[in-house]
C-alpha cells in the first residue's frame, strides 16, 4: 500500500476536520457514551481511516533530523541516533491521536450511523474499498490535476486569442 498518496491528502482531511470543528457544535467528551465511542472506534478502524496518519512520526523525525543536521552536519550520526530514539519513544503516544479521531467521528455521527459504517466497511465491498481507497484517491487526484492542467492551457490560449482580436495583446 502506498502511504505517500494518502498522506498527500492529509492537509485536505485536516482542513475538513478543522472546518467541521469550527462550524459544527461540539459535544463534550462527557456526552459520549462508551458504546458510542466503541462504535466510532469500530467504524474508524474498519474504514482504514487511521492509515493516513501512520507516517506522521517518521516524517516529523526526518524533518527534525534535517533541521539539526543543517545547523551542524559534523554530528550527523549523533543527530540521527537521538532523533530515532526520540521518535521511537513518541510512537507510544499514537493512541492519543487514535482517541482524538474516534471522538471526532463520534461527535459528528450517531452511534447508529457509526454502526452502519462499521458494518459496511467490514463487508466484502467495504473491505475492497478500504484496500483500494488510497489508490483510487491518488488516481482521482492525478486525473483532476491533469484535467486542470489541460483546462488551464485552453483558458490561457482562449483569453490570449480574444485579447489579440481586441488589439490588447500582440500576436
Brief characterization of the structure:
78% of the residues lie in helices and 0% in strands. It has 171 residues and is mainly α.
Write the layout of secondary structure elements.
Blueprint: H1 3-8, H2 10-23, H3 34-47, H4 56-71, H5 76-90, H6 94-108, H7 111-122, H8 124-165
Structure description:
With about 170 residues, the protein is mostly helical. The protein has one domain. Helices cover about 80% and strands about 0% of the residues. The chain is built from 8 helices and no strands. It starts with a helix and ends in a 6-residue tail after the last helix.
Which tags fit this structure?
8 helices; mainly alpha; 171 residues; single chain; 0% strand; 78% helix
**Fraction in beta strands:** under 5%
Q: How much helix, percentage-wise, in residues?
A: over 70%
Average residue pLDDT: 88
Q: What characteristic shape results from the CA principal axes? A: flat
- What is the terminal-to-terminal distance? 49 Å
If you compute it from the alpha carbons, what radius of gyration comes out, rounded to the nearest whole angstrom?
Answer: 23 Å
What is the total tally of β strands?
0
Number of domains: 1
Amino acid at each position: 500500500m502506498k502511504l505517500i498518496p494518502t498522506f498527500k491528502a492529509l492537509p485536505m482531511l485536516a482542513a475538513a476536520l478543522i472546518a467541521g470543528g469550527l462550524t459544527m457544535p461540539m459535544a463534550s467528551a462527557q456526552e459520549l457514551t462508551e458504546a458510542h465511542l466503541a462504535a466510532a472506534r469500530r467504524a474508524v478502524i474498519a474504514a482504514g481511516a487511521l492509515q493516513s496518519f501512520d507516517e506522521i512520526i517518521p516524517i516529523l523525525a526526518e524533518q527534525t533530523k534535517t533541521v539539526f543536521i543543517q545547523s551542524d552536519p559534523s554530528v550527523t550520526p549523533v543527530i540521527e541516533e537521538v532523533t530515532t530514539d526520540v521518535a521511537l519513544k513518541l510512537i507510544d503516544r499514537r493512541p492519543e491521536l487514535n482517541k482524538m479521531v474516534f471522538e471526532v467521528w463520534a461527535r459528528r455521527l450517531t452511534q447508529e450511523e457509526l454502526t452502519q459504517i462499521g458494518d459496511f466497511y467490514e463487508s466484502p465491498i467495504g473491505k475492497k474499498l478500504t484496500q483500494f481507497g488510497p489508490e483510487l484517491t491518488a488516481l482521482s487526484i492525478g486525473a483532476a490535476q491533469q484535467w486542470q492542467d489541460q483546462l488551464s492551457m485552453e483558458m490561457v490560449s482562449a483569453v490570449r486569442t480574444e485579447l489579440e482580436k481586441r488589439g490588447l495583446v500582440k500576436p
